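EI: anyone free to look at a 217-residue chain?
SC: sure, send it
EI:
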Amino acid sequence: MKFFRLDASLRIEGSVSRALADAVEQEWLREHPGSEVMRRDLGSNPLPQVWPAAVAALMSPPDQPRTDEQRAAAALAAELVDELVTSDAFVFAVPIYNWGVPQHVKHWIDMISTEPRAATPEQLLAGRPAVLVEARGGGYAPGTPREGWDHMTQYLKRVFGDVWGLDLVTAEAELTLAETTPAMAELRELAKQQFADAHSRATTHGIDIARRLRVAA
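SC: here you go
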């Protein structure tokens, strides 16, 4: 069995999204000890900005030679898709930045979309289990001042679930900036509870996907 983990936080120490992904991974390894974990850390090792070359490679006519840059970009896109299609289960750990998808995550998705296996109507990862864990610095729940400002969650659900076909569940922690933001001091207890709830959901999801594939195997 092979488990794929994507991290996107620019923080290493103290990252909420990484902590939630740790909970999922821990339960996976508890059920599948010794299995391979494929890691792609976009926060500490972002992809080179070669998406235009990857698009040009995809669109180039078969009788037209590719440039060195296009060949390198196409090879990177193929590597990214290989990491996904050879994995059995997934956790994607993504913080919301500036009310939307982190630039380096969007670029990763855009690169994958240029690979022929992903650039078709068929779902790339149909039916495979995945957990999306999110960290949001503020609060975006109904009735809050920033309701409707979260422009990331629905996009990721659309890509991971509807486009790639993953059987996706989520665990989200909000108010993650409360501990370090004086203006949010009154929200710190609520933030702690939200993290505890998200950690519990992430753990449960990790157990569920691991046991489901153990039974299937």
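EI: DSSP finds six helices and five strands in the chain.
SC: 👍
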